Amino acid sequence: MSTLAQLQVGESINEVQLAPVSRMDLIKYSGASGDFNPIHTIDEEAKKAGLPGIIAHGMWTMGNLAKLFTSYYEEGFVKDYSIRFKGMVFLNDVVTLKARLLEKQENTLRFQVQAVNQQGNEVLKGEVVYHQYEVVRE
Amino acid sequence: MFKDQIGKQSNKVKNTVERGAVKKFAEAIGDLHPIYFEEDTGRLSRYKNNIAPPTFPRVFDYGEIEGLNLPNKGLIHGEQTFHYVRPLLVGEDVYCYSKVKNYFEKKGNFGEMGFLVLESFGEDEAGNVIFSSTSTVVISEAVRKVLVK
């Protein structure tokens, strides 16, 4: 599918499966975002916090998910993006990103978005409201 | 203990959507699309500029809310929203601040949980809102006890 406008209600954007989560992914996100909470990078700190191991920043997964919409930048933009963090993402987890069109109104596309892990459990769930620019008809 | 903080806000802080920071951020979320960093792609786009990813506002400085002392450990990020009037442009200045929107407590699996809702804003120089966001932070009973001490 080359444009979001062609998408029918109930259809999905091609899903994206991420490479297994690595420590370097989370170190990079810490640096790029400024969120240096050590439960995302240092094993002992994660254990001290009662976790079995380091976990990905929720915002890392949320940031990744938005890329399903990036290439359509000429068509519109993400107007609303709301997420509930449902489960933790651990090292080596394989996360799949999904977006399904729920509703189409004039200039607005409402998507259900989610990220699921290799067990099929939702780690994050929410909505994207995509605003489409007016199409200039010739 | 956070209830009396509702309504408090920080002073606006001037941030710049820095070119290098946008590229690093896009790379860190595996979204290294040319619209975020390649100047020609930006110039030829409808924005006449490069833009920033929707979750980029995570990097901005929103200033301190006086009297709001959040621990840097033991918090759980429960929910996050972004609302945009338009995408952020690379190179532009954004004036950012946060306020305490709400605080409430609910019984959960791990005892009485506190939910702190912070709302943040990014405005242009004229004071027009470009984006707003809300973060819901979950604070466990155990952490709150430590804070009281």
Describe the structure.
The complex is a heterodimer of chains A (138) and B (149). Chain A is an alpha+beta fold and 138 residues long. Chain A has a single domain, classed as Hotdog Thioesterase (Thiol Ester Dehydrase, Chain A, Roll). Chain A is built from three helices and five strands, in the order βαααββββ. A five-stranded antiparallel β-sheet of chain A has the order 1-3-4-5-2. The mean pLDDT of chain A is 95. Chain B is an alpha+beta fold and 149 residues long. Chain B has a domain at 3-17 and 60-148: Thiol Ester Dehydrase, Chain A, CATH 3.10.129.10. Chain B has helices at residues 19-28, 34-37, 39-44, 141-148; strands at residues 13-16, 75-84, 93-108, 111-123, 129-139. In chain B, strands 1-3-4-5-2 form a five-stranded antiparallel β-sheet. The radius of gyration of chain B is 18 Å and the shape is elongated. The mean pLDDT of chain B is 92. The A-B interface holds A 18, 25, 28-29, 31-35, 37, 39, 49, 57-60, 62-64, 66-67, 69-71, 73-74, 77-85, 133 and B 21, 24-25, 27-31, 33, 35-36, 45-47, 51, 53-55, 58-59, 72-74, 76-84, 86-87.
